[in-house]
Amino acid sequence: MSTIFTKIINREIPASIVYEDDISLAFEDINPQAPTHLLIIPKKPIATINDITEEDREVAGHLLYVASKIAKQKGLAEDGYRVVMNCNEYGGQTVYHIHLHFLAGKPLGWPPYTDKKKV
Ligand code: AMP
Questions:
Q1: Can you give the pLDDT at residue 35?
Q2: Is the CB of residue 93 below 6 angstroms from any atom belonging to ligand 1?
Q3: Integer Cα distance of 88 and 34 in angstroms
């Protein structure tokens, strides 16, 4: 099923795109949780981490390669940053097209979550 991220890939809705190659796209998160908050997504629509197949291994690994590349390009590598991928309800996933959150620009707290009451 197609999500809002497919529309961003197809330029049907706007996004602040910071990186693109044949396999992936990176753009600014619309609701940033850090001074730099990017989403790195595969162009292939894979719904969740659970849906990554053997043939997707290169695509999934590529997202980390892009994170490393962007960190260096933006001068964020040395200070450090965090990458996060949420999966399904308990992981807090809201868009069902896998995406690596790239968070940087300030010291980030750990653990990264607050317990949520199940509704
Ligand atoms: P997750 O909760 O891990 O599925 O993360 C989804 C992320 O997508 C959230 O951080 C949202 O702020 C972000 N998001 C949703 N719609 C857009 C959009 N149109 N452009 C950029 N980021 C978006």
A1: 98
A2: yes
A3: 22
